[in-house]
């Protein structure tokens, strides 16, 4: 499978969706001074069976200003226009693939003055994405299968513990930046499936991420025997998960030693950093793991950001994941944006909405409740320039459904067997709404 071309983008677009609610639900009413006439079109691309993002097509108003919006023509089947005297938006789930062209006319009356505008719009509804599943018998074979599905060969391979998540989370965005797979191992030995995948890839370098308690010296010895003199093995470890993250990022050969942009995520839980890796890979940025409960950066963390030449930081997660005090500390030195939300699914969907344009080729779907099967998927998605979404174990979560409806992927790849993500996910069954 060919690797993605250069993924370099600007981070400016990421600042537009720091709160997912702004993307999923119409905003509250604003003053008449901010009115926008003619109306904006709804999203131009949609997917059968998935909700469109209900953004306001005209800036909401409040009395005594009034709004009237009319539709000429027809929306795609399954979509409808909601319009009252204060706001208007299109919502619903398309029911069939089609292209619909229509016009929206807005009339805003304020202080006896009427402003009118008309906009011609088109919505193209694509078929629901084709679903495939990559499922290994365990997390280690899972990582090998993800690698095999993504890489024909690789000069560099990253190897991290699959028994705990932090080191693999640190490695995902770095591996993607190096167009490299991320394989998982036990602390004691590399499984046969992973050894076979390493031999197939025939790398020149294997980067072991984590200290000897996470990946034992016996594993390094096993790699030397399996790969012989064809591969150089380098360990990047540290006293804890945070030092491993810093040292890996700063490594001149196998890290991302310079970047204007840095993603900040807690190292004490996995979902936020997992979903951040593909978004970070789009702009060749690292994901730095921190103690999210801290009130300020540590001296080594400040040194890492300084060494990188960072100018902007993007916090992934709400204030329970990365504290408001830590955000304030970052904002003293860097342009700082937070991607928050009511839960991990909203955080992930909001970041993907900001980072990826509609019409992506593939969306990787991982469990938001358990980490093992998803770890290697972050690197694979990042290499290909595709997003990774997280969901509930038995159905597509509400925020994730909106994410699929906005990104409109041609394909969805489920990461893990039915024990991680149940059979209803094979048909992308949406979770019931209350």
From TrEMBL:
Pfam families in the record: CW_binding_2 (PF04122)
Family annotation (InterPro entries): Bact_Sporulation_Assoc, Cell_wall-bd_2, Ig-like_fold, TAT_signal
Keywords assigned: Signal
Signal peptide: 1-34
A GO biological-process term: carbohydrate metabolic process
Full protein name: Putative cell wall-binding protein
């Amino acid at each position: 499978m060919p690797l993605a071309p250069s993924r370099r983008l600007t981070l400016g677009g990421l600042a537009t969706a720091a709160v997912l609610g702004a993307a999923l639900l119409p905003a509250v009413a604003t003053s008449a001074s901010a009115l926008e006439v003619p109306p904006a079109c709804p999203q131009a691309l949609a997917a059968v069976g998935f909700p469109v993002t209900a953004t306001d097509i005209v800036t909401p108003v409040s009395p005594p200003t009034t709004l009237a919006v009319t539709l000429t023509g027809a929306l795609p089947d399954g979509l409808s226009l909601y319009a009252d005297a204060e706001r208007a938006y299109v919502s619903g789930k398309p029911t069939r693939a089609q292209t619909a062209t229509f016009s929206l006319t807005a009339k805003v009356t304020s202080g006896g003055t009427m402003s009118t505008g008309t906009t011609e719009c088109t919505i193209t509804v694509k078929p629901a994405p084709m679903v495939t599943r990559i499922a290994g018998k365990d997390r280690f074979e899972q990582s090998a299968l993800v690698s095999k599905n993504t890489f024909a060969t690789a000069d560099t391979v990253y190897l991290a513990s699959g028994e705990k998540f932090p080191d693999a989370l640190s490695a995902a965005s770095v591996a993607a930046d190096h167009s490299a797979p991320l394989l998982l191992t036990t602390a004691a030995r590399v499984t046969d499936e992973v050894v076979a995948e390493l031999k197939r890839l025939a790398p020149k370098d294997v980067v072991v991420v984590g200290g000897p308690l996470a990946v034992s010296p016996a594993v390094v010895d096993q790699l030397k025997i399996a790969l012989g003199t064809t591969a150089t093995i380098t360990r990047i470890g540290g006293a804890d998960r945070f030092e491993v993250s810093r040292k890996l990022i700063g490594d001149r050969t196998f890290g991302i030693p310079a970047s204007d942009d840095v993603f900040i995520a807690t190292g004490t839980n996995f979902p936020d950093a997992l979903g951040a890796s593909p978004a970070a890979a789009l702009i060749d940025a690292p994901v730095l793991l921190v103690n999210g409960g801290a009130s300020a950066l540590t001296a080594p963390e400040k040194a890492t950001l300084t060494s990188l030449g960072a100018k902007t930081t993007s916090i992934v997660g709400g204030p329970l994941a990365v504290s408001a005090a830590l955000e304030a500390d970052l904002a003293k030195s860097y342009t700082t944006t937070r991607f928050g939300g009511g839960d991990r699914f909203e955080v992930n969907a909001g970041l993907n909405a900001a980072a990826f344009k509609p019409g992506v080729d593939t969306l990787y779907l991982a469990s938001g409740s358990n980490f093992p099967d998803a770890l290697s998927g972050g690197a694979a998605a990042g290499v290909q320039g595709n997003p990774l979404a997280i969901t509930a174990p038995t159905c597509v979560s509400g925020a994730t459904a909106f994410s699929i409806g906005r990104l409109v992927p041609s394909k969805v790849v489920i990461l893990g067997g039915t024990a991680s993500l149940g059979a209803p996910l094979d048909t992308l069954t949406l979770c019931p709404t209350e």
